[in-house]
Structures are given as structure tokens and as C-alpha cells.
Amino acid sequence: MTRIADLNADQLAHHALNIFIAQGRHVEGARVIHHALRLDPDHPGALRCLSDFLAHPGTEPFAAATLEHALSGAVPLSDEARATLDNLRFLDIWSWGFSRHRSGETNLGGEAFQNRQDFEFDGPSYAAFLNTVTEPAGSLQAAFQAAHRICGLMSGLLRHPQKDNPAFEDVLGPDELVETDAYRQWLATPTDDLDALDQAIQAQRQAS
Q1: 174 Cβ contact list (under 8 Å, min separation 6)
Q2: Which residues are 119's β-sheet partners?
Q3: CB 157 within 8 A of CB 181
Q4: Cα separation of 185 and 176, whole Å?
Q5: SS3 annotation, the chain
């Protein structure tokens, strides 16, 4: 029997993407992402999934910090991984309202994103948005690390030792959160559900 604890970061990132494709933002996906990045903080697939998971109102600046950290040069990336994360950043910046198409259209098809020169980027506003988390964290890397801890908190794998509803400043320090009993229990669970989802997605791809 294969357990969650037996999976490496590559396998976990693969399952995290499957969960996001099939179910969107889901607590099981958050658990898989958090653990993958515990094993390998530089894993490009897990970084992508963390950004996707946090790209929602309330945590969007942490999604941005994750991508900016990944693309800053601090993370070793293949050309393919860098291109994937850079494209995701470009789309996110547009979806968050920090760039607009020169045509003025807001409902854009995929082909519109092929030419980046057709977009006007509001750099100062995006920098201010990113600074809402990088400045209190102290650095881009620290903001990413806080994003990772937020994922663990939202998944139930981490908790604050005193507060039921910790604030942003409570996740800035690595010593502020502790692992839950649920983390250890989850690591011991079999991967049957993850494997079944993977098989279903693979079958759908082969049928299409």
C-alpha cells in the first residue's frame, strides 16, 4: 500500500495539478501542495499550484509573491518551467487588473495573449499590490514562505498554538505555526483517491 508519506515532490505536484483541474481550490489540493513544498521548496510544479491555490480574493498578493519569488532567479528553473510560470504571471497580472489590452476589450480569447506588446502594464500599481505582503514580510522570499505557511494553515496541516484565527502577521515567522495531528494522520493515508483521480484524468485525455 502506497501512503501519502511515500510520495516525492514530483508525484505530489502532479496530484496537486490533477486536483486543481478536477475540483479547483480544494483542501486536499492544499495539503498536497503544502507537503510537496516541504519536501522541495523550489519545485516548479508545486510553486505553480501554490500560486493557483492562492489566486483568490484575500490571498492574491501571496500568489503574486510566489510567482515573483519563483522567477526572481532564487529558484533553479528549466527553460520550460520558467516559461510556464512566466505565462501564468502574465495572465494573473491581467486578471488582477494590472494590465489591459490596448483594444479596451475585457473579454479576450486565448489568441489575444500571444502578443504581449498589445497589453499596457500598470507597473506602479502592481508593485504596490505586491508590497502589501513583501514589505511586512521583509523580503520576497519571506513573503513566499508566508504563502507556503498560509497554505498549510488553510489545509488544516498547520495551526497557531494560541489563536484559532491567526492574522497575517502570525504567519510571518516560521516558529509561529505548528503541525497538527491531522498532518501526521494524513501522511499515513493511502493514495487510492489520488491514484483514482489520476487514472480518470488520463482516461479523459486519451478519449478526447
Answers
A1: 145, 149
A2: 101
A3: no
A4: 21
A5: CCEHHHCCHHHHHHHHHHHHHHHCCCHHHHHHHHHHHHHCCCCHHHHHHHHHHHCCCCCHHHHHHHHHHHCCCCCCCCHHHHHHHHHHHHHHHHHCCCEEECCCCCCCCHHHHHCHHHEEECHHHHHHHHHHHHHHHCCHHHHHHHHHHHHHHHHCCEECCCCCCCCHHHHCCCCCCEECHHHHHHHCCECHHHHHHHHHHHHHHHHC
Cell for 28? 486536499
pTM of this structure:
0.93
Give pLDDT tens digits for 153-207: 999 999 998 888 888 778 877 677 899 999 999 999 999 999 999 999 999 888 8
What is the pLDDT, as a whole number, of residue 207? 86
Nearest to 151 by CA among 25, 24, 43: 25
Q: How far apart are CA 132 and CA 134, in angstroms?
A: 6
How far from 165 is each of 33, 159, 161, 168, CA to CA, in Å? Answer: 21, 9, 11, 10
Neighbours of 125 (CB within 10 A): 13
Q: What is the mean pLDDT of the chain?
A: 93
Q: Residue 84: its pLDDT value, please?
A: 96
C-alpha cell at 108: 479576450
Q: Are 23 and 197 in contact (CB under 8 A)?
A: no
